[in-house]
Design brief:
Layout: H1 3-16, H2 22-33, H3 38-43, H4 49-60, H5 65-69, E1 71-74, E2 77-80, H6 93-102, E3 111-115, H7 121-129, E4 134-139, H8 142-154, E5 161-165, E6 176-181, H9 196-199, H10 215-227, E7 228-237, H11 243-252, E8 255-261, E9 267-274
Parallel strand pairs: 3-4, 3-6, 4-5, 6-7
Antiparallel strand pairs: 1-2, 7-9, 8-9
Helix pairs in contact: 1-2, 1-4, 2-4, 6-7
Length: about 280
Amino acid sequence: MKTAEAVTLVAARLAAAGIEEPRREARILLAAALQTDAAGLLACDDIDEAIFAPLLARREAREPLAYILGQREFWGLTFATSTATLIPRPDSETLIEAAMATFPDPRKIRRILDLGTGTGCLLLAALHEFPEAFGTGVDLSPAAAALAQTNAARLGFSQRAAFLTGSWADALCGQFDLILSNPPYIPAADLIGLMPEVKNYEPASALDGGADGLAAYRAIITALPALLAPNGAAILEFGIGQLDEVVELIENAGFIATARADLAGHPRALIIRAK
Protein backbone atom coordinates (compact mmCIF):
# COMPACT_ATOMS: atom_id res chain seq x y z
CA MET A 1 0.00 0.00 0.00
CA LYS A 2 1.01 3.65 -0.44
CA THR A 3 2.57 5.50 2.48
CA ALA A 4 -0.47 7.71 3.00
CA GLU A 5 -2.72 4.65 3.10
CA ALA A 6 -0.45 2.92 5.61
CA VAL A 7 -0.34 5.99 7.86
CA THR A 8 -4.14 6.27 7.76
CA LEU A 9 -4.59 2.58 8.54
CA VAL A 10 -2.11 2.54 11.42
CA ALA A 11 -3.42 5.80 12.85
CA ALA A 12 -6.99 4.50 12.83
CA ARG A 13 -5.94 1.34 14.66
CA LEU A 14 -3.98 3.37 17.23
CA ALA A 15 -6.85 5.79 17.76
CA ALA A 16 -9.20 2.88 18.37
CA ALA A 17 -6.76 1.60 21.01
CA GLY A 18 -6.90 4.94 22.83
CA ILE A 19 -3.51 6.29 21.72
CA GLU A 20 -3.08 10.06 21.73
CA GLU A 21 -1.56 11.67 18.62
CA PRO A 22 -2.19 8.54 16.53
CA ARG A 23 -0.96 9.95 13.21
CA ARG A 24 2.33 11.09 14.70
CA GLU A 25 2.88 7.69 16.28
CA ALA A 26 1.79 5.96 13.08
CA ARG A 27 4.57 7.67 11.15
CA ILE A 28 7.11 6.79 13.85
CA LEU A 29 6.06 3.13 13.91
CA LEU A 30 6.12 2.83 10.14
CA ALA A 31 9.56 4.43 9.89
CA ALA A 32 10.85 2.04 12.57
CA ALA A 33 9.33 -0.99 10.83
CA LEU A 34 10.95 0.03 7.56
CA GLN A 35 14.23 0.90 9.29
CA THR A 36 14.21 4.40 7.89
CA ASP A 37 13.54 7.97 9.00
CA ALA A 38 10.76 10.44 8.27
CA ALA A 39 12.25 11.43 4.90
CA GLY A 40 12.76 7.81 3.94
CA LEU A 41 9.17 6.99 4.86
CA LEU A 42 7.90 9.64 2.46
CA ALA A 43 9.94 8.06 -0.31
CA CYS A 44 8.30 4.65 0.16
CA ASP A 45 5.51 3.86 -2.26
CA ASP A 46 4.81 0.18 -1.56
CA ILE A 47 4.53 -0.88 2.09
CA ASP A 48 3.66 -4.48 2.96
CA GLU A 49 1.36 -4.66 5.99
CA ALA A 50 3.24 -7.72 7.24
CA ILE A 51 6.28 -5.53 7.85
CA PHE A 52 4.62 -3.20 10.34
CA ALA A 53 1.95 -5.52 11.79
CA PRO A 54 4.10 -6.81 14.72
CA LEU A 55 5.01 -3.31 15.92
CA LEU A 56 1.45 -2.10 15.50
CA ALA A 57 0.11 -5.01 17.56
CA ARG A 58 2.51 -4.17 20.39
CA ARG A 59 1.45 -0.53 20.45
CA GLU A 60 -2.24 -1.45 20.25
CA ALA A 61 -1.62 -3.46 23.44
CA ARG A 62 -0.43 -0.14 24.93
CA GLU A 63 3.23 -1.11 25.15
CA PRO A 64 5.14 2.19 25.39
CA LEU A 65 6.59 3.45 22.14
CA ALA A 66 10.01 3.88 23.77
CA TYR A 67 10.15 0.15 24.57
CA ILE A 68 9.06 -0.80 21.06
CA LEU A 69 11.71 1.44 19.51
CA GLY A 70 14.29 0.52 22.15
CA GLN A 71 15.33 4.12 22.72
CA ARG A 72 14.23 7.54 23.95
CA GLU A 73 15.71 11.02 23.67
CA PHE A 74 16.51 12.98 26.82
CA TRP A 75 18.35 16.31 26.98
CA GLY A 76 19.25 15.92 23.31
CA LEU A 77 20.92 12.55 23.95
CA THR A 78 19.59 9.17 22.84
CA PHE A 79 19.24 6.50 25.54
CA ALA A 80 18.64 2.79 25.11
CA THR A 81 15.54 1.68 26.99
CA SER A 82 14.31 -1.57 28.49
CA THR A 83 11.57 -2.75 30.82
CA ALA A 84 14.19 -2.80 33.61
CA THR A 85 13.89 0.99 33.90
CA LEU A 86 11.47 3.85 33.69
CA ILE A 87 11.32 5.61 30.35
CA PRO A 88 13.08 9.01 30.47
CA ARG A 89 10.53 11.82 30.54
CA PRO A 90 10.83 15.48 29.47
CA ASP A 91 9.63 16.66 32.91
CA SER A 92 12.80 15.23 34.45
CA GLU A 93 14.92 17.58 32.35
CA THR A 94 13.87 20.16 34.94
CA LEU A 95 16.51 18.65 37.26
CA ILE A 96 19.28 19.33 34.73
CA GLU A 97 18.03 22.88 34.21
CA ALA A 98 18.01 23.35 37.99
CA ALA A 99 21.56 22.01 38.29
CA MET A 100 22.84 24.38 35.64
CA ALA A 101 21.09 27.34 37.27
CA THR A 102 22.45 26.38 40.70
CA PHE A 103 26.01 25.95 39.43
CA PRO A 104 26.54 28.42 36.57
CA ASP A 105 30.28 27.68 36.65
CA PRO A 106 30.45 24.04 35.51
CA ARG A 107 34.04 23.71 36.72
CA LYS A 108 32.85 23.72 40.33
CA ILE A 109 31.19 20.33 39.92
CA ARG A 110 33.63 17.44 40.20
CA ARG A 111 31.56 14.59 41.71
CA ILE A 112 27.95 13.79 40.77
CA LEU A 113 25.70 11.14 42.29
CA ASP A 114 22.48 9.84 40.76
CA LEU A 115 20.32 7.77 43.11
CA GLY A 116 17.95 5.41 41.31
CA THR A 117 19.77 5.96 38.03
CA GLY A 118 17.57 3.84 35.73
CA THR A 119 18.75 4.43 32.16
CA GLY A 120 21.39 6.81 33.51
CA CYS A 121 19.70 9.72 31.77
CA LEU A 122 20.03 12.23 34.62
CA LEU A 123 23.63 11.39 35.40
CA LEU A 124 24.80 11.31 31.79
CA ALA A 125 22.96 14.52 30.89
CA ALA A 126 24.64 16.16 33.89
CA LEU A 127 28.05 14.89 32.81
CA HIS A 128 27.37 16.39 29.40
CA GLU A 129 26.89 19.81 31.04
CA PHE A 130 29.61 19.51 33.70
CA PRO A 131 32.60 18.32 31.66
CA GLU A 132 35.09 18.09 34.53
CA ALA A 133 32.87 15.90 36.69
CA PHE A 134 32.89 12.17 37.38
CA GLY A 135 29.53 10.54 38.03
CA THR A 136 28.29 7.61 40.10
CA GLY A 137 24.91 6.04 39.46
CA VAL A 138 23.18 3.68 41.89
CA ASP A 139 20.18 1.47 41.22
CA LEU A 140 18.59 -1.38 43.14
CA SER A 141 18.14 -3.30 39.87
CA PRO A 142 21.27 -4.94 38.42
CA ALA A 143 19.63 -4.85 34.98
CA ALA A 144 19.07 -1.11 35.30
CA ALA A 145 22.66 -0.47 36.37
CA ALA A 146 23.87 -2.54 33.41
CA LEU A 147 21.69 -0.59 30.99
CA ALA A 148 22.98 2.70 32.38
CA GLN A 149 26.54 1.47 31.85
CA THR A 150 25.64 0.58 28.26
CA ASN A 151 24.25 4.06 27.72
CA ALA A 152 27.38 5.62 29.20
CA ALA A 153 29.51 3.68 26.71
CA ARG A 154 27.26 4.54 23.77
CA LEU A 155 27.40 8.24 24.64
CA GLY A 156 31.14 8.34 25.27
CA PHE A 157 31.03 8.69 29.06
CA SER A 158 32.34 5.28 30.10
CA GLN A 159 35.56 6.80 31.47
CA ARG A 160 33.65 9.37 33.51
CA ALA A 161 30.90 7.25 35.04
CA ALA A 162 30.53 4.20 37.28
CA PHE A 163 27.34 2.34 38.12
CA LEU A 164 26.62 0.37 41.28
CA THR A 165 23.83 -1.92 42.44
CA GLY A 166 22.52 -0.93 45.85
CA SER A 167 19.69 0.50 47.90
CA TRP A 168 19.96 4.28 47.74
CA ALA A 169 23.07 5.37 49.65
CA ASP A 170 23.81 2.08 51.43
CA ALA A 171 26.77 1.24 49.18
CA LEU A 172 28.32 4.71 49.20
CA CYS A 173 30.97 6.69 51.01
CA GLY A 174 32.46 10.09 50.29
CA GLN A 175 30.78 13.33 49.34
CA PHE A 176 29.33 14.74 46.15
CA ASP A 177 28.96 18.26 44.80
CA LEU A 178 25.71 17.44 43.01
CA ILE A 179 23.20 14.74 43.91
CA LEU A 180 20.32 13.97 41.55
CA SER A 181 17.36 11.66 41.99
CA ASN A 182 14.01 10.91 40.43
CA PRO A 183 12.82 8.46 43.10
CA PRO A 184 9.57 6.46 43.10
CA TYR A 185 6.89 8.77 44.45
CA ILE A 186 3.51 7.28 43.59
CA PRO A 187 1.52 6.06 46.61
CA ALA A 188 1.15 2.29 46.40
CA ALA A 189 -2.65 2.43 46.32
CA ASP A 190 -2.56 4.73 43.28
CA LEU A 191 -0.55 2.37 41.05
CA ILE A 192 -3.67 0.55 39.87
CA GLY A 193 -5.04 3.77 38.40
CA LEU A 194 -2.05 4.57 36.20
CA MET A 195 -2.35 4.54 32.42
CA PRO A 196 -1.77 1.10 30.82
CA GLU A 197 1.62 2.02 29.38
CA VAL A 198 2.92 2.71 32.88
CA LYS A 199 0.96 0.22 34.96
CA ASN A 200 1.47 -2.79 32.68
CA TYR A 201 5.00 -2.24 31.38
CA GLU A 202 7.20 0.05 33.49
CA PRO A 203 8.84 -1.49 36.58
CA ALA A 204 6.67 -1.14 39.69
CA SER A 205 9.75 -0.85 41.90
CA ALA A 206 10.62 2.43 40.15
CA LEU A 207 7.10 3.79 40.69
CA ASP A 208 5.98 2.58 44.12
CA GLY A 209 6.73 5.22 46.74
CA GLY A 210 5.21 3.29 49.62
CA ALA A 211 1.97 4.00 51.46
CA ASP A 212 2.23 7.78 51.20
CA GLY A 213 4.61 8.05 48.25
CA LEU A 214 7.40 9.47 50.41
CA ALA A 215 9.39 6.39 51.46
CA ALA A 216 12.28 7.07 49.08
CA TYR A 217 12.52 10.72 50.11
CA ARG A 218 12.92 9.73 53.75
CA ALA A 219 15.80 7.38 52.85
CA ILE A 220 17.53 9.90 50.60
CA ILE A 221 17.13 12.93 52.88
CA THR A 222 18.41 10.94 55.87
CA ALA A 223 21.58 10.14 53.90
CA LEU A 224 22.22 13.70 52.68
CA PRO A 225 24.27 14.98 55.66
CA ALA A 226 26.94 12.34 54.96
CA LEU A 227 26.76 12.57 51.16
CA LEU A 228 26.51 16.26 50.36
CA ALA A 229 29.77 18.16 50.01
CA PRO A 230 30.15 21.65 51.47
CA ASN A 231 28.48 24.12 49.07
CA GLY A 232 26.93 21.19 47.22
CA ALA A 233 23.28 20.69 46.29
CA ALA A 234 20.86 17.81 45.94
CA ILE A 235 18.06 18.08 43.38
CA LEU A 236 15.09 15.76 43.71
CA GLU A 237 12.08 15.29 41.48
CA PHE A 238 8.66 14.93 43.10
CA GLY A 239 5.06 14.44 42.03
CA ILE A 240 2.18 16.86 41.70
CA GLY A 241 0.73 17.71 45.10
CA GLN A 242 3.79 16.54 47.05
CA LEU A 243 5.66 19.84 47.35
CA ASP A 244 4.70 20.75 50.91
CA GLU A 245 5.26 17.27 52.31
CA VAL A 246 8.71 16.86 50.76
CA VAL A 247 9.75 20.36 51.82
CA GLU A 248 8.74 19.53 55.38
CA LEU A 249 10.96 16.43 55.34
CA ILE A 250 13.85 18.49 53.99
CA GLU A 251 13.50 21.31 56.51
CA ASN A 252 13.12 18.89 59.42
CA ALA A 253 16.48 17.42 58.39
CA GLY A 254 18.13 20.85 58.68
CA PHE A 255 18.28 21.81 54.99
CA ILE A 256 16.68 24.54 52.92
CA ALA A 257 14.73 23.81 49.74
CA THR A 258 13.90 25.84 46.65
CA ALA A 259 11.31 24.63 44.15
CA ARG A 260 11.67 24.78 40.38
CA ALA A 261 8.77 24.34 37.96
CA ASP A 262 8.70 22.23 34.81
CA LEU A 263 7.68 23.56 31.38
CA ALA A 264 3.99 23.12 32.24
CA GLY A 265 4.42 25.35 35.28
CA HIS A 266 4.07 22.54 37.84
CA PRO A 267 6.56 22.46 40.73
CA ARG A 268 8.77 19.51 39.73
CA ALA A 269 12.19 19.71 41.37
CA LEU A 270 13.52 20.73 44.77
CA ILE A 271 17.02 22.17 45.12
CA ILE A 272 18.34 21.21 48.55
CA ARG A 273 21.24 22.97 50.25
CA ALA A 274 22.67 23.25 53.72
CA LYS A 275 21.56 26.23 55.80
